[in-house]
Amino acid sequence: MKHQRIATAAVAVVTTLALAACGGGQDASSSADGGFTAEPAQGGTVHVLQNADFSYLDPARGWDGGVNNFYRLVYRQLTTSAPGSAEDPNEIVPDLAQGLGEVSDDGLTWTYTLKDGIAFAGGDPITSAEVKFGISRAWDPEVGIGSPYLKQVIDAPEDYEGPYRSGDLPTIETPDEKTIVFHLKEPFPEFDAVVAQVNATPFPEGSGAGDEFIHEIVASGPYRLAEYVPGSTIQLERNPDWDPATDEVRAAKPDAWEFTIGLDPATIDERLIAGQGADVNAISGTVQPATLPRLQTPQLQERTLQLPGICTTYMGLNTTKKPLDDVRVRQAISYAVDRTAIVNASGGTQLGEPSTTILPSTVAGHKDFDLYPSADGTGDVEAAQELLDEAGLSDGFTLTLDIRAQESMQAQGEAVQQALERVGITVELNLIDTATYYETIGTPSQQHDAAITGWCPDWASSAATFIPPLFDGRNIYEKGNSNLAQIDDPEINARIDEIKAMTDIDAANVEWGDLDEEILALAPVVPLMVARTVSLPGENVTGLHASANAATGGIDYVGVGLKDPEKG
């Protein structure tokens, strides 16, 4: 979730939620007590309350909005997203590197020079060798199941399988301890954003093989792991070997962070509403739909945040499964889906809005269109039935839909179930634990017919972070696969190559928007909604800024702290 230039001003601010039944809320930055964005004091512990565990602590494996934001506290890369408080929070800025990359005239070589004084927890210096080693882990078929961009953009031998299996990667050079040189397959003008991906984290040479770091951290950021009880607690403490003089991104005001995992979402809401004890220092994700009406009291309105929606929730249709290999069947499903019911099931318009495109309006390249229109977004049953009749499936069929084992996600699945039932399609829901959901649906051998998931920009200045990962048929992996439709269409692949070769990013974004429409004509996925976040932080928490890149529109952890470190 990274980006070089601003896509929309909406992601740069955090605002108070004005609930429909109430008067308008005040601007967050001007509230009487310093608001949500006041500079935090030094010290104290920030608490994070969450339902599900993180996918992985290893940044080569994990790659979703929640864990990427967590990684920002403990890991660093050559470049990274500017803090949410920056004038342009979506800009890519230097991190371990002294500056952004120097690119050769032909666009195929990028060179970075490391800062002085950067080290791992424990004091070992971070050199170009450790940066190279950490990045080369992305090619390991077992470990490197996270962000795909390094593998897609950096040149590498066709049979290269990472440092543990194949050894050195010759297309990344380290002429000295401070210099690292990357050779690309083809020009990629947004390469600074590629090395800002979480799997570009440096690792000590020889470490991190197998399952060694699923539950461990090799910290390069301001915090190190103090304790991790999977499914229960993660505690972070200060990393004494992190030098703030080398880091212009992470404020790191709290002394510690404590993540409490496995809480029932309704319990989280109750605790934050009560705001007792250490919960005055707590933050969490979005509130439950049933909680929204309770936020109408003036006291709760003052600390209720409406965060911008930047992620598309969609249903991937597995084109390798019959009868979903028939485009008419996929188009029928696209017509039959009731997006209004899905938004309502997700908590209503305060928590989302219907989407008919893959690219959300907050991502550069977005194009407005609706190939499968219906009255009030409730679905066109007649058009869907006609297509099923043409496909010889007038009596319908049965499909299995993978969904996360969470109440709101089940509600989305049930809304799909009810909509498709109108055209004789029986939907069986397959519930998967949230902590393992992305890995499961990202393993083609474990995929069922369809899955509801979401996609957020890895850098919002370019639609290149949406279209290729989801629809390039040459990037269907045995693990860590993001092309859930498993569509491998030569025309789509060729158009992706054409657009990626364009050096004018703005012109390329226009083409990405057109390609969005061309792809959805084949209906490999069904866009459902763009989700919004409504959050209720504790009254003692401040430094709350949204970030499209680092936090998928949520609160960027790097600026968070406490107004009074002694409180709670």
Automatic annotation (TrEMBL):
One of its GO terms (molecular function) is peptide transmembrane transporter activity. Residues 91-475 form the Solute-binding protein family domain. Keywords: Signal. This is Peptide/nickel transport system substrate-binding protein. The lineage of its organism: Bacteria, Bacillati, Actinomycetota, Actinomycetes, Micrococcales. InterPro entries: Peptide/Ni-bd, SBP_5, SBP_5_dom. Residues 1-20 form the signal peptide. Pfam families: SBP_bac_5 (PF00496).
